[in-house]
Amino acid sequence: MIEKVVPFVDTYVSPFSCKRHEYDVFKEISLRLNSQEHLSQEGLIKLVELAYTYQGKGKFRKRTLNEIIEIIKDKDSFFQKESVTPREV
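RE: above sequence
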């Protein structure tokens, strides 16, 4: 995608698009994913912050940006599940 789609959009679509900001954010996120920045906690937080700058502002998002950042910072406590004990038969 980075090698084919981004150059095409940069050349033929982007200069004429009213959604320039959204494309720039998409491109930035794509490039950062390609360079594997999402594998570090700081990189993932930056990607989430970028995604939350889209114009639509995530009308259907279930969590706020701060909630997502807190989950990323302390994922172990978020995903910790109570130990399930087998029922007696």
